[in-house]
Amino acid sequence: MNDAPIRQIVIAGGGTAGWMAAAAFATLLPPAYRISLVESEEIGTVGVGEATIPMIRLFNQALKLDEADFMAATQGSYKLGIVFDGWRVPGERYIHAFGPVGRDLGLIPFHHYWLRAKATAGDLWDYSLNAAAAYAGRMSLDTPPANAALPGISSAFHFDAGLYAAMLRRHAEARGVTRHEGRIARLEQHSESGYATALHLQNGMRIPGDLFIDCTGFRALLIGETLGIGYQDWRHWLPCDRALAVPCEGVAAITPYTRATARDAGWQWRIPLQHRTGNGHVYCSDHLSDDEAAATLLANLDGKALADPKPLRFTTGMRNHQWSHNVISLGLSSGFMEPLESTSIHLIQSGISRLLAFLPNQAIAPAARTEFNRQSAFEFERIRDFLILHYHANERPGPFWAACRAMRIPDSLAAKIERFRATGGISREADELFTEVGWLQVLLGQGIMPTDHHPMADALNDAELADYLATLKRLIAQRVAAYPAHNALLATLRRA
Ligand code: FAD
Fold first, then answer.
1. How far apart are CA 330 and CA 113, in angstroms?
2. Is 49 near ligand 1, meaning CB less than 6 Å away?
3. Which residues participate directly in catalysis (predicted)?
4. 258 near 51, Cβ under 8 Å?
């Protein structure tokens, strides 16, 4: 590498990852940067990935996307959480709702008060505005004043990932990103340093650059195939390795949540959009054949299938380093975890923010690269633990679920469960993606009930606590009753 400023960024691949990166760079970087993107229509994209988490709002805001335009362009709907159907035992469900549960009464989290009163306090989710709105099929974009007794709804989106990528492409090209169509044949590297210097396409074109972003999906053409950065296989913890995805006719009332239904050897997703419903069956090929998986999927749709099921194979895990030399991987090339908590698109987003935070001006400092890789791995590993919890803490029948119960889990997760069970306390480091209240809902939903609560929850007397809880429930019910139906809100946006 010479000491010239790093100003030419080349993005290899134009799936969700490639176009999110291109749109973000084109919007946020100064005009001196030149951004190019290569993609191959012949190869295509994964094209599933339709459920998100609330942080996606920050990405859309950074790009200044108008919400009504975005919802119309992507056939989007709102998502208030994920309903887990049958994950602890068949026939029982819980929701991982976004936003808070309850209101903190001082120094300790709300759930300790609920634990103290749980014999009479009802369900934990009675104290979640998001859960109540999701089950009622209602949604509001109103923001209450800061001093209101309850905060507003916290929402994410369901959208058609192909339409989202197309929208981002228009956004990026309008801001100067150059798109090249063609197959990448090879990466040209500096003979001594091994740093990437250019992409060569099969059509003979050479695209030089200073920094290369590998968004080539599961192929990981630059970071994996060319630079040889290995991959950690996590299938011993998350054994599902295949998925079938199929859209079907939509339903009249669009539910504002993702549904994840446990099946004999995996689970099925249901993601309602405006024009159709997305469905998929994620399963473990050691326990279920492809034909059996397809039959289960097709037998559990809302309406007529609109295509043949699309098969996908994957190895859950993570790239050993997401940044090597001057190549940074984003999206599926950096790793894959099944969409149980809708984290892949978020990992692209946080990879882009981290990359912008660490963007080198001239030479790449090895210490910066090391820290980037440490933060990326930490984020992946904590999400991995959260997903394992859904599988491990189950009481379902069948050999697949028995094997999940029996598996040895990462020490970091085992310690979390042990502390929660004994004290109700949730250990969480500041940089983890999932909040304490997210962990709380899945721990309880999977049947892990603490045997104690924090002693400070005893500060209120029984009557004060009962009154507080009853008031909270009433406020939530009143608020939700005043919200429009989700469909009505979508219709209002279409008219905006
Ligand atoms: P891809 O979509 O595979 O794009 C790769 C790009 O690289 C394409 O443009 C391709 O043409 C190009 N390319 C590859 N090789 C070459 C070459 N030689 N020359 C030129 N171009 C090349 N995420 C969520 O957040 N929520 C979900 O609900 C969700 N559900 C999912 C369900 C399943 C079953 C799977 C597998 C994934 C899901 N995801 C989900 C993940 C999400 O789909 C991906 O994170 C997202 O699509 C990003 O993919 P990508 O852009 O990295 O790769």
1. 42
2. yes
3. 79
4. yes
Taking the centre of ligand 1 as the mean of its atom positions, its distance from the CA of residue 218, in whole angstroms, is 7
Distance in angstroms (rounded) separating the CA atoms of residues 486 and 16: 26
**Nearest CA residue ID for atom 15, ligand 1:** 216
C-alpha distances out from residue 260 to 16, 115, 338, 410, 462, Å: 22, 27, 12, 24, 37
Is 79 part of the annotated catalytic residue set?
Answer: yes
Q: 8-50+160-235+316-364 maps to which CATH number?
A: 3.50.50.60
pTM above 0.90, yes or no: yes
DSSP-derived pairing of the beta strands 242-248 and 277-283: antiparallel
Q: What angle do CA 315, 318, 324 make, to 5 degrees?
A: 130
- Alpha carbon 245 to its chain centroid, in Å, reads 17
3-class SS of residue 398: coil
Instruction: Report the DSSP pairing between strands 8-12 and 34-39.
Output: parallel
Res 2: pLDDT: 58
Task: Give one DSSP letter per residue of 54-114, joined into a string.
Answer: TTHHHHHHHTT--HHHHHHHHT-EEE-EEEEESSSSTT-EEEEESS-SS---SSS-HHHHH
Instruction: Please report the pLDDT score of residue 384 as a whole number.
Output: 97
Q: Which residues pair with 156 in a beta bridge?
A: 79
Left if phi > 0, otherwise alpha if psi is -120 to 50, otherwise beta: which for 424? left
Place of tokens 């397809």: 294
Cα 51 to Cα 331: distance, rounded to the nearest angstrom? 15
The predicted pLDDT at position 298 comes to: 98
pLDDT of residue 147: 84
| Side chain identity at residue 173, one-letter code | E
Phi-psi region of 429 (alpha: psi -120 to 50; beta: other; left: phi over 0): beta
CB 58 within 8 A of CB 27: no
| Listed residue (158, 171, 167) closest to 70, CA to CA | 167
- In 193-326, where do the E strands start and end? 196-201, 206-208, 211-214, 231-233, 242-248, 258-263, 266-272, 277-283, 310-313, 317-319, 323-324
Query: Cα(193)–Cα(2) distance, rounded to whole angstroms?
Result: 11
Give the distance (Å) from ligand 1 centre to CA of residue 459: 52
Low-confidence ranges of the chain (pLDDT < 70): 1-2
Reported ipTM exceeds the 0.95 cut: yes
